[in-house]
Amino acid sequence: MSAVQVKNSLESAVELGSVVNDFSITVGTANGSGSQTSNITLLRALFKMGIPVSGKNLFPSNIQGLPTWYTIRVSKDGFLARREEQEIVVAMNPDSFSQDLADVLPGGVFLYADDIKIPINRDDIVVYPMPVNQLVKGADAPSSLKNYVANMVYVGILAQLLGIDYDKIYQALNFHFKGKQKPIDLNFGVVQAAADWAGKNLEKQDPYRVEAMDKTRELIMSDGNTAAALGSIYGGVNFAAWYPITPATSLVEALEEYVAMLRKDPETGKNTYAIIQAEDELAAIGMAIGAGWSGLRAMTSTSGPGLSLMTEYAGLAYYSEVPVVVWDIQRVGPSTGLPTRTSQGDISMVYFLGHGDTQNVILLPGSVNECFEFGWQSFDLAEKLQWPIYVLSDLDIGMNQWMAKPFEYPDQPMDRGKVLWEADLEELSGQWARYKDVDGDGIPYRTVPGNQHPASAWFGRGTGHDENAVYTEDAGEYERNMARLSRKFDTARNLVPKPVIDNMEDADVGIIAFGSTEPAVQEARHHLAKAGLKTDFLRLRAIPFTDEVTEFIYAHEKSYVVEMNRNGQLHQLLSLEYASVCAKLTSIAHLDGLPMTASWIENRIMQEEDKK
Amino acid sequence: MADQNTKTRGKVNLVGLTKGDYRGKPTTLCQGCGHNSISSQIIAASYELDLKPESIVKFSGIGCSSKSPAYFLGRSFGFNGLHGRMPSLATGAMFGNHHLEAIGVSGDGDTASIGMGQFKHIIRRNLPFVYVVENNGVYGLTKGQFSATAESGLTLKGHGTNMYMPVDIAWEAVVGNATFVARSFAGDPKQVKELLKAALSHQGIAILDIISPCVTFNNTDESMHSYAWGRNHEVALHELSYVPPMEDIIVDYAEGEMIDVTMHDGSTVVLKKLEHDYDPTSRSGAIALLEEANRKNWLITGLIYIDTEQPSLFDIYNLTDVPLNRLKEHQMRPPPESIDQVNALMF
Fold first, then answer.
1. In order of start, what are the domains of chain A with their CATH numbers?
2. B320 and A271: CB-CB below 8 Å?
3. Nearest to A316 among B81, B338, B347 (CB)
4. Burial of B334 (0-12, 13-18, 19+ CB in 10 A)
């Protein structure tokens, strides 16, 4: 093979290596070809170089064969939302080759496996062929693994072209393979061979490179599902029941991994928890609700279709007032929809989940760190309120690796809520009533099975009940009880996490968003401000809406509600709550299964602003 | 444990309670309903076994049968959950305190129709749980539709003739790897009580399929689930008496061939074989028996199958002796220094 095939006559206005730490790389491979290891190695090496970076796996619902992409954003300024625009594209998959080629920005870079014999018809980009087969043939790998290590070729070539630190690549591989020398050596050997080849044979023609920075030193990398599992463990989870569903499965898998290490009784080595894989989601939440009723910190995790199946139990838990934590890692519906794509499409369903009059308490984590915090806080809230707490994450937060601050130990002791044990009942001479609003906050007292006081027991039920939990269909009793539940929802208003508000001086409009769209919103705000439109930003972290939300809406003539669904579901809920001023709210909703981009938000807001 | 109030309160058991301490609220089921008779035997069995009501947890699904836990063990915690979903609720709840006893009451609709899935899975997990099916072949609470246990060809007023084959709950339990399967008849209170006592001592799932006639909607003399049919077709497998371990006298069932089954807690079920040379520890024998009974239209009653070797759900989970719902914060939240260790595990 000759040195370089530069199939273009690029203007040499762009100085070589002049774009530092500010571009996106997308790798197109075939699902199941082992590219995950390569992609995450690239991401981690850049992170260890101190450069702000994000990585998003854009994958199909398929085990092997369909096209899949991984996109890495390198940003010295810390803008980490996905971008549509790709400066560097690596094409390893003939099936997506033409699309990958078309996706490269003018002036960008296209690397491809040179066994793909598809003509390259662009002259506005830099093209580097990669002799993948030749380099893999030379690797000291068993034939069964050759296909997997093939993806390490682009890691080595990119490292050489961009200047990625080989030590950091080694560190990333060491972490990935948990210190197992054989796979580390095998993969790193391919990286080195590819880098050597590139050094000798490729002449750099493009402006992109990386340079070590000091912006990630205090940070870790984790995915939201791992953080949620760890947070739950620090929240004292005793019981988890679940049923496999993408993208929630990895939450319980992480729970299983870390709970064994963190939650054995130090004296006896026995378990202070139990995890059960149920026969379906309805059974999973049934078990969790049973456990919550009997005084355990209980949870389940699922996604949209699983929640639909859980609905009947959700109604029971709302009405019989059982604490339980339900994580919903949202994906694209309706139905099976796009099961491996991210979404914020469950918020309406979850708010009303149940039947009859229900209103549910929802937490909305916006980062890996908040997945950890809400992991433990949700148990305090569930037990304080004696209700299900729904935590709505999404596939993007849950399954992708994010830079995060180190997890912080809970700064509050556990709050087990209003539970009466034997001594409490002794003091009350056994006089208590399960559903009596003693404190005026709508939250009654409860006892749990095993309490040996003769007056402790009560009979839980989904049927109409009086203050003593005794069956009744009395009209007055029913209505009083439902009014108390409403009062309890108002109490929740003062207990849930407050929104995070980020204001600009003399802002023109407000933006309301939640969850994983924050990086895109923040970047859009930066660009909008440069273009002359200043914005205040409220990132919602819970429902019911707190006073801060009310104040924000009233304080702005116009607020854009940004979310990843078709119907503008949060916009709908806000419009219900703030009906008299709902004209102040404009929905900016969009769902195509891909993580939100800043450019989409700023374009839509500018379109709306132009209408004025 | 003598009680000063013995004279006024009536006879007390070893935990100092009278039978009255085991009662619940007055029943709202129809007069003569077989379910009331079963409730009475749950009261009697718990009293005679000297169980504290506070140490028993009751469960049910939805239906006439599922209302009945309100009518026994008023001092026990209970949860009347969702139609067909009692098993999952009970499974989670019993992890709160795995030392407690659990009794669930379901019906044929609640178990064999809407609840077939959870019924099969609670069996697989071998939760220590007395699962009573009050089986009458109809939906009483919604006024008499056929359930999945109704026999093919049965005609009921207003609902025509059932065209489908029935589900045999005992059969489903045996093939599903239940470790205790029995069948009885609500009109035979003595056998119901003895089977309940044995079931309560079994450390694993105990399925009791109790034919409990619906006096209102399914009591035609031709129906398998009627009193008249039951009395004429009942074939007792063996006379049976449960002897708690604290007594050392075996009562007056010494004659004839006997087979002893030792329970995990050391107590013994004494089985008296009648004309059938029946071994309830053989699954293939149980299946053959049920097959024969179905063919011959017999109502086999007694302990059909038992396996005391299988580990229970709680044997598998290796939980702390302290019930999980009594753990303190320091036993549930890892110590502060562990957070650095966790962060070090992240990249």
1. 19-209 (3.40.920.10), 222-404 (3.40.50.970), 418-495 (no CATH), 500-611 (3.40.50.920)
2. yes
3. B81
4. buried
